[in-house]
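Hi! If you just cloned this repository, the fastest way to understand the data is to look at a raw example. We've pasted two of them here, unedited. The first protein comes first, obviously.
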Amino acid sequence: MSRFTDKVAVVTGAARGIGAATALRLAAEGAAVAVVDLSADRARATVDAITAQGGTARAYGCDVADLDAVEAVFAQVASDFGTVHILVNNAGVTRDNLFFKMPKDDWDTVLAVNLTSAYNCSRAAQTYMVRQRYGKIVSLSSRSALGNRGQANYAAAKAGIQGLTATLAIELGPYDVNVNAVAPGYIATAMTAATAARVGADAEEHQRLAAERTPLRRVGRPEEVASVVAFLASEDASYVSGQTLYINGGAR
């Protein structure tokens, strides 16, 4: 497939997990990918994997919670590749704790990295998208947006993504910019392994228990989220905007 030939995509938090899988998927379908993570060194393994498969990618270091840094990196991406057509807001962290134990710093960090970063990157990207009257923004929400014990900060941020998505779809739609979100359930990543550790569980056992509560009787893979992100970033979803699609194996 070559749905993204001549398209430039920016994927944040792309050093590993869902971000890396998404960068690889977009590149495999023809996009030139700006692989963004906290440092360029962290992003380089994903770039190497893309180039090994014949794709085009460059590594960029950026603290996406810092608006000035975001604007600078988008300007560099536009200088390197010409413009920005696709943005995937994937960067995220967890700082899990019961609410009454949650330090203010952990609240601030999770909101900044998971939600404010999407504001920062979307604000920078829309400058190019509005000008060219074309763009696709896909942000990562989560099943936790519906509430999850020990994740008041993460749940609030991921619920915020859904509100931001719906609003940007309204405001950017007249410029032919589609804005959507995906909300994964349990996906086997380093982040969910850290969640298992938080509750004193082995990662494999934690996955097994999650699978038992899922109608498909397994947990998800990063590549399965990446395929849905790619759909929403493509012309196959040209009349889809303002939506949050849950990717959770049928869990309610």
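Ok, and the second one:
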Amino acid sequence: MADSERARMAQGAWYTCLDAELEALRGAAADAVFEHNSLPPRQRGNLGPTLKALLGGAGERARIEAPFHCAYGFNIHLGDGVFLNAGCTILDTATVRIGKGTLLGPNVQIYCAEHHKEAVGRQAGLEIARPVEIGASAWIGGGAIILGGVTIGEGAIVGAGAVVTRDVPANTTVVGNPARPLGRG
């Protein structure tokens, strides 16, 4: 069994987010995000320096427009040429991998955290972290929401405003809430 809440989170086990170590890590991410969002665009470049250092990885030409928000940052891995438009939020309690050349429209949200189903568990801060994987050359339309545990295949398209609750095969377009392949009722 894991000996810290951070270890439990990383292992995909139930953990409490009401933990001093996790709070400190979220504070470091908040500082990095604040710097990124506050720097003048030409001074910031593709990524604010503190945010770039915090991320789990950022390929060449990976760019995040401001404003941006993330929970921890170190679980986010961006491939070469990934673009996140303004207003994106990534609650990266688990690993989030975004493949080379993938584009996220404005206000896309990725939620790795799943809260406990019982009220007493939620009050105790219990959650479980589920990873998200987005393949290369995918396009995620503005306002889409991607839930934890989802894999979106290479070249897939997620329509604006879609809520992705299940895996999306490569080269498939999904729309709606819940997201479903285009052309199906």
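That's it. A detail worth noticing about the second one: The longest strand covers residues 88-91.
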